[in-house]
Amino acid sequence: MISAIKSNKSYPSDKYMAISNHIKNLNKELTNLGFDASDILADVDADFLKKQNLKAKKKVLDLDFQNSEKTEWMINTPKKLLYEKALNGNWYNFSVNPTQFATELETKFKKTDYYRKGETHKLEDKLQAFLNKNTKTANNAKLIAVYRAFLSVVITKMDMIDDSYGVIGSMYQEVFELYLNIDRQELNMPPDVFLLDILELIIWEDYGGIDVYETIFSKIITK
Predict the structure, then answer these.
(1) CA 77 from chain center: how many Å?
(2) Residue 175: in which H helix or E strand, if any?
């Protein structure tokens, strides 16, 4: 079934991932219970099956389903879960959990609407004020938490920002460099925790805010 859906070259990728994840998990559940599709359909009324075939073609093969019809498997696709893990899924292992700073930083952004390019300098000032407030007297453990919160929150907001002037992107790059350069020798944070977390972030960050430093990354992470 997945192959049949995938053969349709016009399928929307998000919808395809949603339905394929549902199919894979459903098949796994049925297998664990000792069932297959033929067992379920064995005693189904022919007229009912005919009607369901039409619905299935539309909603499954043609991917013409609504968001309200999504199952848990269709919502929590591997892509979504891995993206969420890259954003904050490793924070419980940090010496200071970045969550509190991420929550505070969220309040600096509009809840709705869009930042036009003429508004980005004011946004930059708000973000810088947040950084100044939380890093002024911070030790290295807190610095890591503050900067790491910034790196994730700003990623999630980039789609609502017209950064034509590049001020937010430049700020992101600066914070990324500051984050990598923090001395972690005396922190109660295993090196592999830091490395896994930052590598996952780099993989999922797709706005170019990290690319500029990939040439020096290998040197900095050995600190």
Answers:
(1) 11
(2) helix 167-181
Q: What is the dihedral of CA 174, 175, 179, 183, to 10 degrees?
A: 60
3-state class of 166 per DSSP?
A: coil
Q: How crowded is residue 106: how many other Cβ atoms within 10 Å of its Cβ?
A: 13
Distance CA 31, CA 45 (A): 24
Q: Residue 180 in contact with residue 198, Cβ under 8 Å?
A: yes
Q: Dump pLDDT digits (tens) for 50-87.
A: 888 888 888 888 888 999 999 999 999 999 999 999 99
Contacts of 41 (CB under 8 A, 6+ apart): 49
Residue located via tokens 């969220």: 106
- Which amino acid, one-letter code, is at 148? R
Q: Kindly state the helix (H) or strand (E) to which residue 79 belongs, with its residue range.
A: helix 78-84
What are residue 112's phi and psi, to 5 degrees? -140, -175
CA-closest candidate to residue 148, choices 74, 81, 210: 210
pTM of the model: 0.82
φ and ψ at 137, to 5 degrees? -120, 20
Specify the 3-state DSSP secondary structure of 49.
Answer: helix
Number of Cβ within 10 Å of residue 195's Cβ equals 12
Report how far residue 26's alpha carbon sits from residue 73's, in angstroms, rounded to the nearest whole number: 9
Phi, psi of 161 (to 5 degrees): -125, 125
Return the residue matching tokens 């990324």.
176
